[in-house]
Amino acid sequence: MKFHASDRAALWLLLGATALMLLLGLGSRELWGAETRWANIALQMLQSGDYFDPYLKGGPYYDKPLPSYWLITATAWLTGGLGNWSLRLSSVISAWLSVWLVYLLGEQLFRKGTGLIAGWMLATTFYFVFWARVATADILTVCGVLAAVWWYWRGPDDTRLGRYLVFFLLLSLTSLFKGLIGFILPGLLLLPHLLQDGRWKRHLNLRLCLALVMAGAFYMTPFILSHFYGAPTYGESGLGLVLRENVVRFFQPFDNIGPIYTYLIYLPVYTLPWAPCWIIAAWVAVRHWRGVEPNTRWLIWGLGLLMLFFTASGSRRSYYVLPLVPFAQLLGAWWITQRNPVSRGWKIGFGAATVLLLAVLGVLYPWTNGGGGVVQFGEAVKFEASKRAPLKDWRLVMIEVDNKVPMYLQTGGAPFYYVQENQDFPRTGDSAALMNWLDTTSGQHWDPQRTIIVAQFRTGDALPLSYLSADHQVITTTPTNGERLFHGREDQSVAFVPQS
């Protein structure tokens, strides 16, 4: 694909605006939703030096394959520590690459300018940018699916070993982020094109089989490393997780059970504000099916198969629809560019959507998270502790702790000790009784003057472990700007710092 100077300038404007939307205010928002799991598991890997056994608050938690956690720990190592930026950077980079890949696909498959429009549509899709700024594996999966589909379309009839190997390695890597949908989704998308004119027959060769074996070995590597180098007493199996999360959940869902029409609602919602474009595009293409170019028919068939697959799964959740979003926007871009050249109105629309996203996600949302919350709670605890002794000399005990808190209480010292809610720790008594219980339960000695106790409680409830306030400084969570303006915080954290 050849680019003129004007094309390059337009592409860099798109990628620059995308980077700004993804990065502005990224570090200002406290942990949200599922990213607390990634933060806690990565933190315990960094503190313990054990990168093969994921733990959540001290307990085994093999919820996702290891590479998504490794990306975060690697970023933390490069940036000097685990924080909001290092936690979310892998998702941000994946989203940025996704916009580029959509651009490349559009320019390759359709008329000139389609990729640019598709890129702007994806970059200004509210829920795409929202999830791109959240530390989970979902946008990593979106990027991996796009990369595999783009690679296929670079040479759909190429039967060289290298071509096969890169394709299947992309599928393996994507599957190591969230699950086997990294293999399934690209396969379903590309199936209509492979079936067309018997194209699949030319790919039945030994080179494809060899590439599959090599990619399969790559996929198995983290699980093998976990088996041989993980703790013998860990007790959970990564491959067992794959079976449970990808096969059992599909046929016998045990959570996230939504109605059968879930994705008929959420695909339009997750493609706002441009949902009308792909809906009209699908209607136009179906009405003029015989006159529509083959690549458009492939895209509609592929989207239809993805919708059928997700709907057939018994486990349904709104954000599961994210991998369909780029392809839906690509279809909408096809409709826009096949009618006539992009008008000034569309350019104004993309500009307005960019400014609105910057204002909401980059300025307003971070402001609502400021002025309090767990970020300032962590800073206050560390400040008070540092007045008594160097932070690395302190040890922290987390009792029924809020998932958000540990990342903001890093001291550079010993790993945190977690007490689970079902343990019989002293809920009444005095500090000496709690220290004795910790000594007995953990098999370690705890210095009462260098141990910070952290717990959580619901707003309005009595302070947990209130007996510690007799000889400890009490620090609690304060409301954020948004909580002061709209509603109070439901769950609060409390830290007990020994009085000197």
Short recap of the structure:
The chain has 500 residues and is of the alpha/beta class.
Account of the 3D structure:
- With 500 residues, the chain is α/β, with parallel strands linked by helices.
- The chain has two domains: 5-366, no CATH class; 373-498.
- The protein has helices at residues 5-23, 35-48, 67-79, 84-109, 114-123, 126-132, 138-154, 161-175, 181-195, 206-229, 238-251, 262-270, 275-287, 294-312, 325-339, 344-368, 373-386, 431-442, 481-485, and strands spanning 55-56, 59-60, 395-399, 417-419, 451-458, 472-476, 491-498.
- A five-stranded mixed β-sheet has the order 4-3-5-7-6, covered by helices on one side. A two-stranded antiparallel sheet has the order 1-2.
- Strand 1 (55-56) and strand 2 form a beta hairpin.
- The N and C termini lie far apart (69 Å).
- The model has no long low-confidence stretch (mean pLDDT 90).
Task: Give the helix/strand layout.
Elements: H1 5-23, H2 35-48, E1 55-56, E2 59-60, H3 67-79, H4 84-109, H5 114-123, H6 126-132, H7 138-154, H8 161-175, H9 181-195, H10 206-229, H11 238-251, H12 262-270, H13 275-287, H14 294-312, H15 325-339, H16 344-368, H17 373-386, E3 395-399, E4 417-419, H18 431-442, E5 451-458, E6 472-476, H19 481-485, E7 491-498
Parallel strand pairs: 3-4, 3-5
Antiparallel strand pairs: 1-2, 5-7, 6-7
Helix pairs in contact: 1-4, 1-5, 1-16, 2-3, 3-4, 4-5, 4-6, 4-7, 4-15, 5-15, 7-8, 7-9, 8-9, 8-10, 9-14, 13-15, 14-15
Characteristic terms for this protein:
single chain, 500 residues, alpha/beta, 2 domains, 5-stranded mixed beta sheet, two-stranded antiparallel sheet, 19 helices, 57% helix
